[in-house]
Amino acid sequence: MSQKVLLNATAINIILHRLACQLIENHDDFSNTVLIGIQPRGSFLAKRLAELLKTEYKIKDLKLGLLDITFYRDDFRRGDKTLTANSTEIDFEIENKKVVFIDDVLYTGRSIRSALTAIQSFGRPDDIELLTLIDRRFSRHLPIQPDYRGRQVDAINEEKVKVNWIENEGEDCVYLVRN
Amino acid sequence: MSELSVNHLLGIKYLNKQDVELIFQTADHFKEVINRPIKKVPSLRDITIANLFFENSTRTKLSFELAEKRLSADVINFSAAQSSVKKGETLIDTVNNILSMKVDMVVMRHPNPGASVFLSKHINANIINAGDGAHEHPTQALLDSYSIRERLGEVAGKNVVIVGDILHSRVALSNIYALKLQGANVKVCGPKTLLPKYIEKLGVTVETDLRKALNWCDVANMLRVQNERMDISYFPSTREYTQQFGVNKALLDSLDKEITIMHPGPINRGVEITSDVADSKQAIILDQVQNGVAVRMAVIYLLASKLKQ
User: Fold this and answer.
1) Torsion angle (degrees, nearest 10) of CA B125, B127, B132, B138
2) What does DSSP assign to residue B46?
3) Stretch A90-117: mean pLDDT, rounded?
4) Helix or strand or coil: residue B56?
5) Is the preceding omega at residue B266 within 30 degrees of 0, hence cis?
6) B307 touches chain A (CB under 8 A)
């Protein structure tokens, strides 16, 4: 196994600031916008972005929720393992809101497809946008593209993109792993 | 650990501690799901489940059916009263006929103990026991433990007394297995005639004085007197049973601490518990019913995920 650093902590920090500014450009004071982190891995990025928007860019009433898509996935009973769920934490209204999905890596697009179904259980949003830190292009199974992307990566299917966060793995870093 | 160790839920006896913990963690997620504006997930949309009820049921049948529908499974219902069982068809024939219509899972209630174990050896489908005679009622015990966990934080180390007709109760047996598995202390309390002779072999203690038992416990699970299973008289009169083993508000208020009251339903109001107890804040009877749907969703989901494509 070999791994290559795609983004180091400094690069991630710069990208997070850029993504935060792009969000502000489109969503102003976030009064009609909610951020939804896709569980499990998208929650780290979502929390980090929310924190940045609050502290550095003085957004006061920012609504952040976490959405678990396990029960909406299209690969139930197709793999070897039972799909294990994570918690969903959405304690605000979705109806008529602008929703921004936040995930770390966009790969086949299937998770986002599931998230699009899952969010409907909470109401009918005005529109839904997608923000991802890494966009693995050329590997999409569905017609889904991000509205905000941190870095576009050309990786072949045998490779894996691993995103580490200080909160979880003790470092901010994105690796390209080859088996 | 993210998979059940069993392919059927025949009884708590066949589960291990990790299975119970996995079911509870999954039920936590489903409890959140059933409190959403849209209470349905598409996971089981390609699964068909048959509910076979060879014995009457209201709560369990509704709860299973709701759980199945909230998971998007297709559901067929069968009750023995309106079927060919009356014409002399055997259990295996009945079930095989239903399975030939491409059914993936069977939820069965049957008056004979061991019916679901028997069935699991002869047919090719996942089976969930929804009560077999006086043997086991595993989903009831799971939802009871889940409700205790929700109310008191955890089941381990808690003192639980099961009061009433232990002899005829599948709820009591499944609860004893489930509570012991999770490290709770269990006592049974009731008239001597309704306590099985060797019940202590299951690791429980016996108490015939209700007040002593209530003063000891954190949770009292009040069972229904099952008149339909009693072929002889086990106590002189209902009135005398109520005086000795019925819980009323005055008795609860006179205890040293506030205990939690549970009841698997249906309640004989005024017999095992009075109305003011059943409707009080100490009772979690309706929480048990709500948790029943979430726990059954978890069991069905986890068993269904072992059905390979």
Assistant:
1) 170
2) T
3) 94
4) coil
5) yes
6) yes
Question: Could you tell me if B267 and B285 are in contact, meaning their C-beta atoms sit under 8 angstroms apart?
Answer: yes
CA distance B10 to B135: 10
Q: Are A106 and A136 in contact (CB under 8 A)?
A: yes
Distance between CA atoms of residues B168 and B215, nearest Å:
25
Cβ–Cβ gap A70/B29 under 8 Å = yes
- Domain extent listing, chain A: 9-26+33-155
Fold designation for A9-26+33-155:
Rossmann fold (3.40.50)
| Residue ranges, CATH 3.40.50.1370, chain B | 12-136+289-304, 138-285
Q: Under a CB-based contact definition with an 8 Å cutoff, are residues B291 and B35 in contact? A: no
Strands in B74-79's sheet, in edge-to-edge order, are B74-79, B48-53, B105-110, B126-132
Residue range B74-84, pLDDT digits in tens: 999 988 776 66
Chain A residues in contact with B33 (beta carbon < 8 A): 71, 88, 121
What is the tens place of the pLDDT at every residue in B98-152? Answer: 888 889 999 999 999 999 999 999 888 899 999 999 999 999 999 999 999 999 9
Instruction: Look up the CATH superfamily of B12-136+289-304.
Output: Aspartate/ornithine carbamoyltransferase (3.40.50.1370)
Map residue B255 onto helix, strand or coil: coil
pTM beyond 0.95: no
How many residues can be counted in chain B? Answer: 309
**Is pLDDT at A85 greater than 80 in this prediction?**
yes
How many Å lie between the alpha carbon of B71 and the closest alpha carbon of chain A? Answer: 9
Express each pLDDT in B251-276 by its tens digit. 999 998 999 999 998 898 999 999 99
Residue B158 parent element (H or E):
none
Cβ-in-10-Å burial (0-12, 13-18, 19+) of A123 comes to middle
d(CA B305, CA A70): 12
The pLDDT assigned to A45 comes to 96
With CA atoms as reference, the chain A residue closest to B41 would be A71
A94 → chain B, closest CA residue: B37
Q: What is the DSSP string of B81-128?
A: GGSGGGGT--HHHHHHHHHTTT--EEEEEESSTTHHHHHHHHSSSEEE
How many angstroms separate the CA atoms of A17 and A20, rounded? 5
Q: What's the fold here for domain B138-285? A: Rossmann fold (3.40.50)
B170 is in an annotated binding site: yes
